[in-house]
């Protein structure tokens, strides 16, 4: 069994709801470089899920409701009981959750606001890369809005679907074939290696209906870039 995650801190907690002593859910901020769930090897055990099991000893069930790429930072919501996990998971599956990301791009895309609609599939010979494939790819839609034009360019992404590497591929894909033509800074898979010390992509806003709630709640986190 691998060693437990390092301390401190186990988790950066944003909100624990009305009962912080035994919360049903938790909103946390995942740092860049940390896995959302444990990987298959001991060196990839440290993760939000593993840390949550230590931080919340009462937690039961899968805990992780959704994921962020290892190199992406930002908001994640965890279901700490089977009931809360089910309540939250259904909303992600039914696309009733609104997710907003902030990113820095290598350059400014041609349109100040638009939507990218390009189907994606894993690039098996070059895993973990994904690529656009109009024949066998799964539908993938991303809305974006330029916040600060320039080099770099600050944008806001609102993914309509949630495919692996969706924002990264849509940003980097050439303009001539429907992409933004502006890779995310620090993206060594789809952009220039060494363009930034980390992937400049942060999950900055999440809107979801909480267990026991009757209306959506919004959580926000500012990126450190």
What is the general shape? globular
**What top-tier CATH class of the largest domain fits best?**
Alpha Beta
The CATH topology label of the largest domain is Pseudouridine synthase
Unreliable stretches (pLDDT < 50, length at least 5) are none
Strand-pairing-aware structural class: alpha+beta
| Count of domain modules | 2
In percent, how helical is the residue content?
10-25%
The largest sheet, given as strand count, sense and whether it forms a barrel, is:
9 strands, mixed
Span of the ends, CA to CA: 36 Å
How much strand content do the residues show? 25-35%
Q: How would you describe this structure in keywords?
A:
225 residues; Pseudouridine synthase; 9-stranded mixed beta sheet; two-stranded antiparallel ribbon; 12% helix
Structural topology:
Elements: E1 12-15, E2 25-30, H1 48-55, E3 73-79, H2 82-93, E4 98-105, E5 113-117, E6 120-122, E7 130-132, E8 141-148, E9 153-159, H3 166-172, E10 201-209, E11 216-220
Parallel strand pairs: 3-10
Antiparallel strand pairs: 1-2, 2-3, 4-9, 4-10, 5-8, 6-7, 8-9, 10-11
């Amino acid at each position: 069994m691998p060693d437990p995650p390092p301390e401190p801190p186990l988790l950066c907690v944003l909100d624990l709801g009305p009962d912080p002593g035994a919360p049903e859910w938790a909103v946390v901020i995942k740092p860049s470089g940390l896995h959302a769930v444990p990987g298959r090897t001991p060196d990839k055990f440290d993760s939000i899920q593993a840390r949550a099991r230590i931080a919340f000893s009462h937690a039961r069930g899968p805990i992780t409701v959704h994921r962020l790429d290892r190199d992406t930072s930002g908001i994640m919501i965890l279901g700490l009981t089977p009931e809360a996990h089910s309540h939250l998971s259904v909303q992600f599956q039914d696309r009733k959750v609104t997710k907003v990301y902030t990113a820095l791009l290598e350059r400014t895309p041609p349109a100040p606001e638009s939507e990218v609609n390009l189907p994606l599939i894993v690039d098996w010979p070059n895993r973990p890369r994904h690529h656009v494939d109009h024949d066998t790819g799964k539908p993938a839609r991303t809305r974006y809005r330029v916040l600060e034009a320039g080099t770099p360019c600050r944008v806001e992404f609102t993914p309509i679907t949630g495919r692996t590497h969706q924002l990264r591929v849509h940003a980097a894909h050439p303009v001539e074939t429907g992409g933004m033509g502006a890779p995310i800074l620090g993206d060594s898979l789809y952009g220039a290696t060494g363009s930034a010390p980390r992937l400049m992509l942060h999950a900055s806003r999440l809107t979801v209906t909480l267990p026991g709630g009757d209306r959506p709640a919004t959580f926000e986190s500012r990126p450190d870039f």
